[in-house]
Amino acid sequence: MNHVLLVGRITHDLQLRTTASGKSVLNFSLAVPNVFSQDDRADFLPCVIWGVSAENTAKYCEKGSLVAVSGKLNRRSYENDKGQHSIMEVVVSDIRFYGKGKRTDASLGNFVIPDVQQPIAP
Asked: Which are the contacts of 113, defined by CB distance < 8 A and separation ≥ 6?
């Protein structure tokens, strides 16, 4: 089974693109806290999302936004001027918005932001 569920913060400004066939696509990196790290490190995971979900993510999220994504891991290859490369990324099938990065807790009203620092017990 290939299924990934992550909660983290978007690490850079979002740039929505459109493919030659007219599909919307959004690539972003997600900083996910590593709860087993002694010094509060995060893992930075590349993500890609397509279609209306990509458009909505670009519209409602920004650098620092807290989101939950689910999807699958996918390995793809590409070539550039430095040669052939391979990347493992999360192909997002569902995304949930928990709030923009620049908002204060007071501006969120009664919305509860999940504590992503707590590991989930098996």
From this structure: 66, 98, 99, 105
